[in-house]
Structure formats: C-alpha cells, structure tokens
Amino acid sequence: MIRAIFVGGAVSDSMRFHLFNGTWLELETAKRRLPDAAAAAGRVQEDLLRLDHQILVGGSTSDHRPAAGGGRGLPLAFALSDDRTQLLVTFDATG
Q1: Residues 17-72 pLDDT 10s
Q2: Surface-to-core class of residue 30, CB atoms within 10 Å of its CB (0-12 exposed, 13-18 middle, 19+ buried)
Q3: Single pTM value for the model
Q4: Distance CA 66, CA 20 (A)
Q5: Strand duo 72-80 + 87-94: pairing
Q6: Angstrom distance (rounded) from CA 7 to CA 76
Q7: What is the pLDDT of residue 51?
Q8: Taking the domains of the chain in order of start, what are their residue ranges?
Q9: Which residues of 11-25 are buried (b: 16+ CB within 10 A; e: fewer)?
C-alpha cells in the first residue's frame, strides 16, 4: 500500500517526506514497545528508505532508460538474497 501511495508522482516531495517521517517514527515506537516485532519493523524501515531513495533517484532524470547497445541479455531472472541485502540477477548475454 505504501508503494502505491508514493510512486507515480501522486504525492508531492514535501508530503512524502512528512508521511515517510511519521511512518518511520511510528515504527521506532513499535520497536521499543513490541520487542518481538522489532526485527520486522526494522525491515519495513529499510524498505521505506529504499523506496524513498528510488523515488528521489527516479525523479532526477527525465529518461530512465539506458542508452541502447548492441548486445542482448535473455532471459533475465531476479531474486532477493535471504538476508535481503542483495539483488541477484542471472542472465545469458550475447554480443
């Protein structure tokens, strides 16, 4: 739900900041009051930071597509590592 609200330019930068900040503070409170849920709240905070960064970087250029090249890479497969710290991409490349 958070991603649907913030992505696509539907929310201004200042509103996104206030919403993210409020959500972050609520998660900090949850981590203190609910120790059993602290790890999950921390993961949500990491996801929020990642999402905010993606929105900021995505808005910094008008064209998000890389320049065309002569090679091909197919098929692509994406996976997130078990510890959620790495995006694993596998593919075959030609050219």
Answers
A1: 888 888 889 999 999 999 998 999 999 888 888 888 877 776 655 555 666 666 66
A2: middle
A3: 0.52
A4: 29
A5: antiparallel
A6: 24
A7: 82
A8: 2-58
A9: beeeebeeebeeeee
For residue 38, what are its two tokens?
């602290």
Does residue 27 or residue 9 have the better pLDDT? 27
- As a whole number of angstroms, the distance between CA 48 and CA 21 comes to 10
| Three-class HEC string of 1-34 | CHHHHHCCCCCCHHHHHHHHHHHHHHHHHHHHHC
Exposure letters 44-73 (e unless 16+ CB within 10 A, then b): bbeebeebeeebeeeeeeeeeeeeeeeeee
| Residue type at position 16 | R
Residue whose pair of structure tokens reads 């091909």 in the numeric block = 72
CA distance 71 to 13: 37
